[in-house]
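Re: duplicated header lines in exported structure tokens

Our pipeline writes sequence and tokens for each protein into one text file. With two proteins the header for the second block appears twice in some exports. Here is an export where it did not happen, for reference. First protein block:
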Amino acid sequence: MAQTDQDIGMHNRFRGYLPVVVDVETGGFDARTHALLEVAAVTLRMDSTGMIHPDECLACHLEPFAGAKLDPKALEFNGIDPQHPFRDALPEADGLRQLFAPIRHAVKENGCKRAILVGHNAFFDLGFINAAVERCKIKRNPFHPFSTFDTVSLAGLAYGQTVLAKAALAAGLNWNSKSAHSAIYDAQRTAELFCRIHNQWQEFSPKRPWLGAD
């Protein structure tokens, strides 16, 4: 079956899901007890040849929820001062709603049914997102509740590297260790890595098997 322009799009590529790359920075490792402090999300777009690219970058700083734990070692690692006056942090519920609105718009604009989270160790990011959604009683979470695309596995397969910095370099991407461990920087590099892996696969799969035989 011949491929048409209508066949080329996110709505056909990932079973109707829109990949959205997410990175979180937190006050520890337990999604239910440690604070969610930063969230960044990068939406993706597909060009007329079926290649995907980073599109819009969304981000917010969040106030620790009432009773949240803050592990000093985690804060030392990510360099976040939750009490810094210039963080412009939002209450958790407000920040998530502000972040989710443009993601839902991107899902609709791409003709998709839902977003699917892409992350480096994606279970960690999705766990914190889901815990915050539950705490805030947000009903319109755009993300699939448990399915993800994990660039740890994809980069391990494609480049033999599982650490984000090493995987990015193996993929031919730039990496600035001084900027790492901010949600925006890590989300942007993860988005570039995911797109690079997808697009290389696209070059080796000209028949696009997810659309049926040409």
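Second protein block, exported in the same file:
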Amino acid sequence: MTPRPRLVACAAAGGAVGAVLRWSAGELAPAADGFPWTTFAINVTGSLLLALLPALALARGSRAWAVALGPGVLGGFTTLSAYAEEGRALLAGGSTGTALAYLLGTLAACWVAVLLGAAATRRQVPEEDLG
């Protein structure tokens, strides 16, 4: 299946916005104590927002907005590559405990954020509207 050019443009524009937001967060709050708090916060926040996205009427009512906000903005905002690289760097620097706390803690916190967001969405949106 070939994606429609309009949806590709929506994802690309949203992705650019999300990437700039992620970069800006890193500039405003760079890691200072050896733990990648900014990337941790970005990924947990992005996971929560992605799970809440179906509660947003705009995203439910428009495929273009759903694509722009979901895989676009939130896909550009969250970052598996920085998460993996920061974990690798911690391990390479001999900070095994911090690396494990970061890698496993991020997964656990993102999972909890998705569960909380999904539960909140189910409470706010009738099941038939979630599709």
